[in-house]
Design brief:
Blueprint lengths: L2 H4 L7 E5 L3 E5 L2 E5 L1 H11 L3 E9 L2 H12 L7 E4 L5 E7 L5 E5 L12 H9 L2 E4 L7 H12 L6 E5 L9 H10 L2 E5 L2 H9 L6 H11 L4 E5 L5 E5 L3 E4 L12 H9 L1
Parallel strand pairs: 1-4, 1-8, 2-6, 4-5, 8-9, 9-10, 10-11
Antiparallel strand pairs: 2-3, 6-7, 11-12, 12-13
Helix pairs in contact: 2-9
């Protein structure tokens, strides 16, 4: 059922996925991905309007990415084209437990995202934006991302989906992102790393999540734990969900589907 009918025919929410749009080169073949774009896709599947904001090259892979976005019913209005840099790709291997390992190529189109009138118009109309750490490895894209977040309406959700990848993160970047966010989603392996880098207290997932919530005056911290479910920490409430059993094929993009549902 379409989301607008679920809200008494109100317009669907506009949710921006700002950051990387790329091709995951999986053992089974190429698959369009990138965490913010995945979130936008799942938002659309849930009945709202998810729009990826990213940058691809003027190459065959870029053409294919734009075509794929349109084919699955999303707007491509937020996808910029770069005349010099190539479309991003990631080599993905999956172990026998379904856990992926990523090799993310650098100097690609989404490392050069620009502030444009189109993007500013999208930001000013958005109900939410989801962003991560990876797209901030480039100062150009980081600056663009922060400009987008600062142009969102005051009531809009700003969801920092941490997604630590390789060595593309720092304490400074995490600090700045948390200051801009209203909601944070982080998994149980990433959270201790974030806490250590930011020199915050906590000897359990709950106390560490609460430290983030209080330090950065967040509305919500969500900690995912794979097959063990999730913890939601709000200012006055918290919920510990044990998760539902599922047969795991692989976990690529699972956290992004969670983020979309959370939004």
């Amino acid at each position: 059922m379409h989301g607008s009918s679920q809200r008494d025919n109100k317009p669907p929410f506009l949710v921006l996925g700002v950051g990387e749009l790329l091709w995951d080169l999986l053992p089974t073949g190429p698959q369009l991905g990138g965490a913010p774009a995945n979130v936008a896709f799942h938002v659309s599947q849930l009945g709202d309007k998810g729009t990826p904001c990213s940058r691809v090259g003027c190459d065959t892979q870029g053409e294919a990415a734009v075509a794929a976005v349109k084919d699955i019913g999303m707007s491509s209005s937020g996808i910029q084209r770069d005349p010099q840099k190539s479309t991003g790709t990631v080599d993905v291997t999956v172990d026998d437990k379904g856990q992926p390992t990523y090799t993310i190529h650098e100097g690609v189109a989404w490392d050069a995202m620009e502030v444009t009138d189109t993007w500013l118009q999208l930001a000013r109309r958005a109900d939410a934006a989801c962003f991560g750490s990876l797209a901030q490895r480039s100062r150009i894209s980081q600056s663009t991302l922060y400009c987008m977040l600062n142009n969102l309406p005051k009531k809009a959700l700003r969801v920092f989906d941490v997604n630590l990848r390789q060595d593309f993160y720092s304490a400074t970047m995490l600090w700045q992102s948390l200051q801009l966010a209203t909601t944070v989603k982080v998994n149980h392996e990433e959270l201790p790393i974030v806490i250590r880098l930011l020199e915050l207290p906590g000897d359990s997932l709950g106390t560490q999540g609460r430290a983030l919530l209080e330090k950065f005056a967040l509305d919500l911290v969500c900690i995912t734990r794979g097959g063990q479910g999730s913890i939601l920490l709000g200012r006055s409430e918290e919920d510990d969900h044990p998760g539902n059993p599922a047969e795991v094929t692989d976990t690529v993009g699972a956290g992004d589907a969670f983020s979309a549902t959370l939004i």
